[in-house]
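This protein record is not my work; I was only asked to verify it. Take the sequence as given and treat only the tokens as open to question. I have pasted the whole thing underneath without changing anything:
***
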Amino acid sequence: MTACTQKKALHAESIKTASGWGYTISHKDKVIIKQTIIPVISDAKSFNSEDDALKVAGLVIKKLYQNRSPSVTKNDLILLKIKM
């Protein structure tokens, strides 16, 4: 499954991990971000679902288009209803 953005310059794709899901964000077929664990939580665990991984990837792409830091906060995860 993939999710594309309006400009198609950045592309998010889900990836299967040993314990769940992660995502990559690519620009012109070059991976610029690979996230295999949920950021900002103390446990090193993958996302529970492909949908959760793609929701966070979408947020990161949105932040990049707004020229903001792509870092994700715990509050971002709560607002997106990501299972931690």
